[in-house]
């Protein structure tokens, strides 16, 4: 018993001696520096593609008592003789984002626009503040402010945090300088809001090794719908001021147009976005078709998440003849997009949603309208060319095809992979489909050749 009492007294004495040390341990607030550390860094084109880049990143907290802009800083500069020189500085804004899940997880989204960038230059940059900086990344500006250069892009949809089959190859190819931009055609992370947005955070960390090095352009898919697309709206920074729903940008001889197909399906959020987008799209395509613009940038490529056509074995909307995005609202057929594509001579329409790849013959209203030469269906075709590329990899796996493929489908594959686009000049554009199942082999490619551009009505 005496030994037990002595041991208890000794333990109490030791605890008393240690208390001052415990009290002197820094408080949570004092070690809060980790919450200011930038993460999820990614780039986008600004309003002027030839001279602006928007840098976006996240932090968990904002340092207290700091002036506006002091916590959202990018230090950058041109790479000179292989030397990193961060001689320029730009400041931006930080916006508080609260996820709609039960934990109401909070983070701050920082945006800084780098302006007046020199063409054909490599810039190094890091982002953050005096409370914490990111790693140093690099990006290359477009080769020329003119239209006479050949942009290369990787395009895909439906890539998740889990089973992201294409990500490793895209990381390698991006850092080798193969692309001028990436287009992700909807459906991210699966889903961004899952587990109180932790899945979205992890996905954004994953793609940083791609998106911090070149513009990562996006449109929403159905998997972004939760809480009125709040994670999607908050996390990205597309041009146009529409919270990333629809926008356009020019790259070399191509006018790219990104739209939200989801405004046709989630009418519980109201009709305003659908009507606004439709009117905006008509105006944007009309402007692109002005003679002085179409002669300068003859190619028009539109992309959105849900396809107008597909031959997959499921009950998705694109397997039905009256696809909402194609013909518009049932019965009244208002706000249909296919007539706009036809009227304004859109050359290519790129979609995702189906976890597969499919290339169509030139088509309008289920009628194949190949080029005038029998052996060259993609030379001066009489309708847009549709491509479905939603096989970058996600936890939902692959999408099967019908036993009997429709005659308007030119090629299809269930392989995981992504699409490459290169606009060689004003008359020739080339597409390739990369297979991850076949270790990066090209399983499909074709040239689209046009001696003239404009409305198919002519």
UniProtKB/TrEMBL annotation:
It catalyses: a phosphate monoester + H2O = an alcohol + phosphate. Residues 153-357 form the Calcineurin-like phosphoesterase domain. Residues 38-141 form the Purple acid phosphatase N-terminal domain. This is Purple acid phosphatase. Its EC number is 3.1.3.2. Residues 383-444 form the Purple acid phosphatase C-terminal domain. Belongs to the metallophosphoesterase superfamily. Purple acid phosphatase family. It comes from Drosophila mauritiana (Fruit fly). The keyword Signal applies. Keywords: Glycoprotein, Hydrolase, Signal. InterPro entries: Calcineurin-like_PHP, Metallo-depent_PP-like, MPP_PAP, PAPs_C, PAPs_N, Purple_acid_Pase-like_N. One of its GO terms (molecular function) is metal ion binding. It is an enzyme of class 3 (hydrolase). Residues 1-24 form the signal peptide.
């Amino acid at each position: 018993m005496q030994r037990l009492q002595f041991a208890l007294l000794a333990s109490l004495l030791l605890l008393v001696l240690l208390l001052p040390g415990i009290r002197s341990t820094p408080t949570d607030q004092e070690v809060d520096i980790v919450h200011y550390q930038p993460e999820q860094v990614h780039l986008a084109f600004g309003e002027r593609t030839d001279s602006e880049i928007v840098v976006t990143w996240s932090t968990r907290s904002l340092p207290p008592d700091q002036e506006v802009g002091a916590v959202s800083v990018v230090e950058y500069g041109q790479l000179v003789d292989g030397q990193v020189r961060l001689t320029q500085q730009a400041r931006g804004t930080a916006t508080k984002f609260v996820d709609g899940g039960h934990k109401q997880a909070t983070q701050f989204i920082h945006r800084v626009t780098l302006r007046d960038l020199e063409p054909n230059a490599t810039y190094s940059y890091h982002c953050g503040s005096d409370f914490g900086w990111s790693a140093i990344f690099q990006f290359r500006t477009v080769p020329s402010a003119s239209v006479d250069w050949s942009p290369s892009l990787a395009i895909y949809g439906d890539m998740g945090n889990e089973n992201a089959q294409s990500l490793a190859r895209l990381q390698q190819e991006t850092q080798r300088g193969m692309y001028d931009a990436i287009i992700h055609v909807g459906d991210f992370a699966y889903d961004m809001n899952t587990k109180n947005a932790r899945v979205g955070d992890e996905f954004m960390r994953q793609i940083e090794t791609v998106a911090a090095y070149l513009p990562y352009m996006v449109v929403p898919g159905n998997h972004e719908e939760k809480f009125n697309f709040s994670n999607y709206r908050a996390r990205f920074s597309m041009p146009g001021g529409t919270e990333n729903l629809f926008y356009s940008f020019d790259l070399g001889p191509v006018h790219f147009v990104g739209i939200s197909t989801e405004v046709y399906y989630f009418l519980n959020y109201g009709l305003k976005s659908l009507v606004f987008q439709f009117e905006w799209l008509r105006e944007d395509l009309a402007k692109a078709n002005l003679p002085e613009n179409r002669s300068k940038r003859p190619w028009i490529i539109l992309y959105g998440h849900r396809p107008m056509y597909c031959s997959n074995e499921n009950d998705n909307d694109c397997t039905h003849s009256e696809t909402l995005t194609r013909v518009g609202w049932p019965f009244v057929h208002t706000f249909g997009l296919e007539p706009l594509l036809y009227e304004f001579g859109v050359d290519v329409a790129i979609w995702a949603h189906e976890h597969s790849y499919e290339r169509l013959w030139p088509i309008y209203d289920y009628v194949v309208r190949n080029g005038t030469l029998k052996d060259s269906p993609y030379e001066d075709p009489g309708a847009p060319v549709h491509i479905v590329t939603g096989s970058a990899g996600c936890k939902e796996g692959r999408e099967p095809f019908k036993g009997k493929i429709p005659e308007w489908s030119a090629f299809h594959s269930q392989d995981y992979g992504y699409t490459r686009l290169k606009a060689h000049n004003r008359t020739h554009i080339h597409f390739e489909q990369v297979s991850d199942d076949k270790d990066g082999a090209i399983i499909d490619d074709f040239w689209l050749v046009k001696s003239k551009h404009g409305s198919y009505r002519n």
